[in-house]
# Entry
Amino acid sequence: MSTTFTLDTATSRAHPVPVPVPVPVPLRRLTVPAIQKRKGGEPIVMLTAYTARMAQLLDPHCDLLLVGDSLGQVIYGLDTTVKVSLDMMIAHGAAVVRRSYRSVVVIDLPFGSYEESPQAAFRTAARVMQETGAAAVKLEGGAVMAPTIKFLSERGIPVMAHVGLTPQAVNALGGYGARGRSEAEAAKILEDAKAIAEAGCFALVVEGVVEPLAVAITQAVACPTIGIGASPTCDGQVLVVDDMLGMFERVPRFVQRFDDLAARISDAAARYAGSVRERRFPGDAQLYR
# Structure
């Protein structure tokens, strides 16, 4: 069985034109350097996206779209991000890039694909960027990952780092509780943040830490910090989009629901089911005469 791929030459992967467009001028994506310059300035808006349509809807409102390995739980129903594969990340990452036009798209490197060595991380990151068209990758870990971040950055791969509660290390951490409650742990996370910022990450996700620690990290590093369960003083914020939209009954304490989409979907499905069972759907408007 063979598959033929047709290249759409009407648009450019780097600067595609959404259809329809109000004016026939290609939109320009934000860039990694533009995000770096937002340190201490206008807050950076970031959400996760896993599908083409969701990327299309979120893109006008976001500066960064993160194809997070949280898709393992959100899309695939897995109990942990540790089970997410590189092929999963590439497939979803490519879909998000194809239907976004403004945001910087960042893709998580999955567990086991980058920790072995800087060279292994480079091979993984290069494949992700080549096969998706994304602008950057994200990886978790503290000072131990500094050499890898430096290695990637020096070879043209922008890296977003991630400290605090790192879901890929949940087995070592013993759960998803907030980090930095003890002075020793807070000091360790702060030093980790400094080390990876100095190694060259262009932005730093700070997840699930006590608020004073998030403030200290934001003040200590030169790159923008993106908070999730951290502090409003971070240079930006990120949420899992399905949590933000109210798709799950149980959400972390740090999540604010901006909709109750699960209830609205359930209601729509119930109305559809009723229309089918009562033979009111399809009606005249949906039939070919």
In short: Residues 261-289 form one domain. DSSP finds eleven helices and eight strands in the chain. Strands lie at 44-48, 64-67, 104-108, 136-138, 159-164, 203-207, 225-228, 236-239. Residues 1-14, 21-25 have pLDDT under 50 and may be disordered.
